Amino acid sequence: MTSEDAPRVRVNQVGYLTHGPKTATLVTDATEPVAWRLRDGDGAVVAEGESVPRGHDPSAGLDVHVIAFDVVVAPGNGYVLEADGATSDPFAVGADLYDDLRVESIVVFYGQRSGVAIEEDLLGPGYGRAAGHVDVAPNRGDGAVPCLPAGHATTADGVDLYDGWTGDYTLDVTGGWYDAGDQGKYVVNGGIAVAQLLGLYERAVRTGTDDALGDGSLRVPERGHGVPDVLDEARWELEWMLRMVVPDGQPYAGLVHHKVSDERWVPLPTLPADDPQPRYLHRPSTAATLNLAAVAAQGARVLAPHDAAFAERLLDAARAAYDAAATHPVVLAPDTNTLENAGSGPYDDLDVDDDRLWSATELYLTTGEDRYAADLRANPYRLGGERPAFRPEGFDWNHVSAWARLQLATVESALPERSLVRASVVDAADALVEQQATQPFGLPYVPSNGRYDWGSNGLVLNNLAILAAAHEITRDDRYRDAVLGGVDYLLGRNALGLSYVTGFGTRDVRNQHSRWYAHALDPDLPPPPRGTVSGGPNSDCPDPVSAALAGSPAQQCFVDDVHAYGVNEMTINWNSALAWVASYLAGLGDGGPARDPGAVAADKPDEERVGADG
Questions:
Q1: Catalytic residue among 182, 202, 210, 560
Q2: 198-201 long-range CB contacts below 8 Å, 24 or more apart?
Q3: Rounded to an integer, what is the distance from CA 256 to the centroid of its chain?
Q4: pLDDT at 611 over 70
Q5: Where would I find the Cellulase Ig-like domain in this sequence (predicted)?
Q6: Which of 201-215, 276-290, 326-340, 457-471 has the least mean pLDDT?
Q7: Which of 145, 288, 293, 580 is the S-S candidate for 200 at Cβ 3.0 to 4.6 Å?
Q8: CA 279 distance to own-chain centroid
Q9: Does position 283 have pLDDT exceeding 60, yes or no?
Q10: Class of domain 132-330+345-376
């Protein structure tokens, strides 16, 4: 797949909000402005102008111009933009363009559920499947999973990554979400995914848009019992995370197992119910334990109005996990990719101070207790600390200090430093707006080394969350416009002219790496469901398919191939980032003045932001 496969006029293939910014990118070697025309669905010319040359974009490897047509506010479908002899894909102008994406991006999680049959009536025709890992042959199942035997985590040169660790117990770890396109379940990736689903609902409550996320809003089995469906979905993973705790009386008691996975990778395609591999619990880790502490504390706060007993159980679990992590502060997850055919992603993490910040943040926001505020102030990622909370590369499961800062800034609390925390988020958003202005394709993602990382689309989306938080804090439309510009990139305004979300746009990806959404390999299987975001361009090109693109400009290091796991996988943490942003966008309506009624002004004027860290 190359840039030449798409129209040279690159647009958001879903469309543009009526009163939002409207920008496209034209691929051309013209050095002077060129004329453009916008036609409506009937073919009539409704706007004209000239492009703005931007020269060579090294991230895309293309010479480009930018076209702005904000003046167009007439709702309609089938708009096309013409310039330099090229015509764009069709798109809409109107209100509520992201309501469907909000729903579908969350329903994707239902399809990732382990331990339950997936109902075709809910996920869609062709998407029903038998329950996976419920101790029905050929599954070994997750009902009584043993610890990885000693010596099973030994590298070819004899290094035991777990230092001889094993355990003589089994755990029932049924349920939860399959992490990505494989059968593994990982606490640290589940943590950020749960946090963002809980967070998008908590944000909707703050802004008065939660009715759209109420009971019956999603296609999940629990609909109709009075609890918002997105909270039911988050609970499915929370209950699994609670099952991953090491029992009393065992070494590392109270810590949380890092993952449960197959002994070996199963081939593509393999449905979860057909997975014959033995399943093992991997060594617990401090990072996984702090993830449970964070999301259990957040879940206790968000779920309390709907299930007080479960909320109390979550808070007890959060406190216990936080204390266990303090007892075992440096049990680190190693890089299990060094093992031969390890059968699971490593999710290795040598820095858990950010996880510690996040768990202290959520426990403070839920309890208001001084001990957690004191831990916040002592953390290296604290406001004004020696490590910056925000990175140009964005945040993800292994860099959660920025997410913690967003939570501390937007969730109401009595923290004396809250106004400065909020100001630091706005400062981080200002830096992203400056980065975005340098990008002719409109994305607020400019890695320090110029190389796009694994899951770059998830990183883009998480940068959009920072901008959205700044919009909530300040009500300054610059940040809203920056979010909308970044979404344009994901939905078609990029070097390849692709929409990276299945089912949205004219040229959407449809072959994300998955062992059961593998239509490309077996016509009896479906493609990934609508609303599934691809990982996106990755400069490392680490899989055998994308390896042919090594050395290409960053935006062109992508191929929509089911085997291209390094650039085109689906994962719960990228979809949770998409769901969070889609929920924010859906709350904008037509992008006009009535948007986001719950947003409040910044606590302090700009001059009090001087010296706030990034």
A1: 560
A2: 198/231, 198/234, 198/295, 198/298, 198/299, 198/302, 199/298, 199/407, 199/580, 200/230, 200/579, 200/580, 200/583, 200/584, 201/228, 201/230, 201/231, 201/234, 201/302
A3: 23
A4: no
A5: 6-88
A6: 326-340
A7: 580
A8: 27
A9: yes
A10: mainly alpha
Task: Give the pLDDT mean for 196-216.
Answer: 97
Close Cβ partners of 571 (under 8 Å, ≥ 6 residues apart):
179, 180, 181, 189, 455, 458, 535
Query: Which of 436-445, 461-470, 604-613 is predicted least confidently?
Result: 604-613
- Candidates 232, 275, 348, 569; catalytic one: 569
pLDDT at position 595 is: 47
Q: Which two tokens stand for residue 431?
A: 């830096």
- 569 as an active site residue: the answer is yes
Rounded Cα gap, residues 252 and 425, in angstroms? 36
pLDDT band at 337 (very low <50, low <70, confident <90, very high): confident
Structure token pair of residue 134: 């419920």
Residue 248 is a catalytic residue: no
- What's the token pair of residue 365? 């926001």
Q: Are 433 and 476 in contact (CB under 8 A)?
A: no
C-alpha span between 581 and 488 (Å, rounded): 12
Contact 396, 358 (CB under 8 A): no
Question: Would you state the structure tokens that stand for residue 441, as one six-digit string?
Answer: 């394709």
In this structure, which amino acid lies at residue 470? Answer: A
Which residues fall within 8 angstroms of residue 40, CB to CB, at 6 or more apart? 46, 74, 76, 78, 79
Share of the chain above pLDDT 70, in %: 96
The gap between the terminal CA atoms of the chain, to the nearest Å, is 37
Kindly state the tokens that stand for 237.
């993973």
Q: Residue 379 — very low, low, confident or very high, per pLDDT cuts 50/70/90?
A: very high
* Measured distance CA(528)–CA(547) in Å, rounded: 23
Q: Are 569 and 502 within 8 A, CB to CB?
A: no
pLDDT at 124 over 50: yes
Q: DSSP label at 535? A: -
Structural contact between residues 15 and 75, judged by C-beta atoms closer than 8 angstroms: no
**Domain ranges in the chain?**
132-330+345-376
